[in-house]
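Q: I have 164 residues here and want to know how they pack in 3D. Can you give me a structure?
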Amino acid sequence: MAKKFTYLFLALLVPGLIFVFLKFAGSNRFDVPVYPQEGIPLHSACVGEVTGDYRIPDSAWQVVSSGTSGAMVIQFPEQHLNGAEVAQAVKEEIGEGVSFFSMETLSLDSTALATWKSCVFLLEPPRQAVLVDSQRRIRGFYDLGHRDEVDRLRLELKILLEKY
């Protein structure tokens, strides 16, 4: 009889101790990768292979950031995509800390937009949006014409802004 109580006590005690240990000593931390990832270079039509610590150049950042301090999603125009709808929906869900910038507002010709897209933001087709953190590092590339990519953007923004 005493043996049964000992086993029952241990069966209840061990999961309880594990729970207490994980609650106070562990932490759930998610992270969004920084591009280019180590060992996986990105390719740019202007500079070729991009590796290591890449940051959006100051001159380009000043044009698109307008003094914002949080994460920024830069969108390039596409005929089949309404980027304003996506931006509005994500802003409503995420709230503060994220800004959207549409390259359409710069009124550049298609060649200049393609240069910005490929050379500065390292975007390759079919993607037309890039997530940049407050330190000007690229954190993700997205094709906003696909629902799963928009969902991934929302999730990565929540992780980046620690709103989970």
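Q: Anything worth noting?
A: The chain has a mean pLDDT of 88. The longest strand covers residues 71-75.
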